[in-house]
Predict the 3D structure of the following.
Amino acid sequence: MKNLIAALPFNGVLASCAVTADPAFCGLIHRDITGSLFNLNSGFIQLQTSNVGGLQTKGFDFNASYNHKFSGVGSLNISFVGTLLNHLIFDTGINANVPLGNSKLDGVYDCAGYYGAQCSFGAVFTSPNPKWRHKLRVGFNLPNGLGVSGQWRYFDSVKNDTLSGDADLNLSATGPHSKPNDAKIPAQSFFDLVLTARLTDKYNFRIGANNIFDKEPPVVGNSVSGNGNTFPQMYDSLGRFLFAGVTLDF
């Protein structure tokens, strides 16, 4: 996608201004009367949306299903959905082109496999970006209308974006160098279970639990997360969730 409408990441603006003194970045920084961005409410970084360079993603989606009926016993059904993320590239549109070590500050960075102040907090990326994630569901239905199904939700581990070799990411003001506990979010698995019952041809009852083992979400520092020191849009933040329902067909 070219000319993407998005906001520049605040850590990227700070780092690029510090290294290049480019007014395109430095002009977005407004310090308070003490010279700080954080002491008073008058300090801020101007990050309104604009047409940036673009966004590109590369990877593969996998989808498979299987059904088999066992005579007189019941039916088995299996479904699988997975995503392999090879690249998730954001182009700020501002190329400083400054060599830094083995990399250069060019306004382009890849967030596949990363999370952090730039790769999961802002208008472009709002959650971690694991290279692999999937949902696997297995269910079995009996001839009398009773059924059970379980689901496995998996998210691969992600590293803090300041550990990237890309200068546009590892120049961030905050990161695992000062907060080692934020260096990595380990792989996460959540399991769900649903029981169903069909009575006559009209009533469908269901009861179940999401995150049945009451697994807690990963907790990271507030400098790299947007809600409650975790990412509730990806990881279950409320623990085990019970539900029940009935459907009437007529």
In short: The chain has a mean pLDDT of 86. The longest strand covers residues 74-91.
